[in-house]
Amino acid sequence: MKKNALLFTLCLIIVTGCQMKDKGQKTSDPANPASGDSTIANVENVKILRVEKQKIARTIEYSSSIIAFEEVHLASATPGKIDQISVEIGDKVSKGDILVRMDPTQLQQALVNLKNTETDFLRMDTLNKVGGISKQQYDQMKARYDIAKSNYEFLQRNTILKAPFNGVISGKYYENGELFSGAPNTMAGKAAILSIVQIDPVKALVNLSENYYPLLKTGMNTSVSSDLYPDKNITGQVMRVYPTIDPATRTFTVEIKIENRQQLLRPGMFCRVSLNLGEDMALVVPAIAVLKTQGSNERYVFLEENGIARRVVVMIGNRFDDKLELISDEVKEGSNLIVSGQARLVNGDRVKVVTD
């Protein structure tokens, strides 16, 4: 009796162990041999968009600062005492207005010398006409007269200083009665009694990438915007394209002439300059397809290639509402761009394209 009970218990233990072993194993589906392999990664469902080129308006925008169309640091060519300065900072002046009068002593002496020399020259000229003097004597007298006249005109220009154009006084460095020394005293490193700027029009200097050099032409229209006047439509024009490219930055400089009849823009203001370079074909994709690396400015997308997600770093061009211009040597026309489900992917993940 005891022997039969022991045999029954042993059989029960063996059967129970076999059942537990079967429960611990995964069964394989003959139709899907990989279904029982726990090392295979999950397949992500994604949606794709076939990349195509579209015609876009090639517009580039650069930041710049407004500068005066012309700026002159007004000064006498020779040191001397300042007799009178007739303007203050901020005063508007017209071309030809007298702004500064220097001490006239040297000018008056030059005038007296000119008149005396002129009298002698006229006397010699009369004698020369009747053959009373030699040609050499006449030439010497005429040279003295020309020198005296030139000296007087030089001192006249540097004793009475006039405005060279319509503008605004932007700097005043001396007061009446002070001695102008001729030493540099401006931020530009030049000697000046007054500084004058022309602010109608103004201009901006923009440094463009060398890629755009063949597209820039003098006379092209531009659009200028200022944060101070967001509702103002300001127009400009390419006035000058510099002929050389900076080898350090691979950029070239363009001067933009900006109309400023209302004088709203002033030198030193921040502005943005937009240039329309015509139409071009470019890769334009939904903005949601472009991801950004956390902690950096790197942008990337995922392409579907034979069921595998490939991560591609890209650059962003222009924005068109909810779309972006994509710049990349690896993204081609016809590439399968993943536009849904890409946020869960890493490079090399298996993906399944769905259409719902």
Q: Main traits of this protein?
A:
356 residues, alpha+beta, conserved putative lor/sdh protein from methanococcus maripaludis s2 fold, Elongation Factor Tu (Ef-tu), domain 3, Helix Hairpins, 3 domains, six-stranded antiparallel barrel, four-stranded antiparallel beta sheet, elongated
CATH topology of the largest domain: Helix Hairpins
What proportion strand? 35-45%
Low-confidence stretches: 12-40
Structure classification: alpha+beta
Task: Supply Rg.
Answer: 42 Å
Largest sheet: 6 strands, antiparallel, barrel
Order of helices and strands: HEEEEEHHEEEEEEEEEEEEEE
- Roughly how many Å apart are the termini? 70 Å
Mean pLDDT comes to 86
Number of discrete domains: 3
Overall spatial form: elongated
CATH architecture group name of the largest domain: Orthogonal Bundle
CATH homology superfamily of the largest domain: Helix hairpin bin
Helix amount, in percent?
10-25%
How many distinct beta strands?
19
What can you tell me about this protein's structure?
The structure is a single chain. With 356 residues, this protein is of the alpha+beta class. It folds into 3 domains: 44-56 and 281-353, Beta Barrel (conserved putative lor/sdh protein from methanococcus maripaludis s2 fold), CATH 2.40.420; 61-68 and 203-278, Elongation Factor Tu (Ef-tu), domain 3 (Beta Barrel), CATH 2.40.30.170; 76-192, Helix hairpin bin (Helix Hairpins, Orthogonal Bundle). The chain is 20% helix and 40% strand. The chain is built from 3 helices and 19 strands. It has helices at residues 2-23, 105-129, 135-159; strands at residues 44-50, 53-74, 80-85, 92-93, 98-102, 160-162, 167-172, 179-180, 194-209, 221-225, 234-241, 251-258, 270-286, 291-292, 299-305, 308-320, 323-327, 336-340, 351-353. The strands form 3 sheets. The protein has a 6-stranded antiparallel beta barrel. It has a 4-stranded antiparallel beta sheet with strand order 6-5-3-8. A hairpin with a 6-residue loop joins strand 14 and strand 15 (299-305). It is elongated, with a radius of gyration of 42 Å. The two termini are 70 Å apart. The relative contact order is 0.18. Residues 12-40 have low confidence and may be disordered.
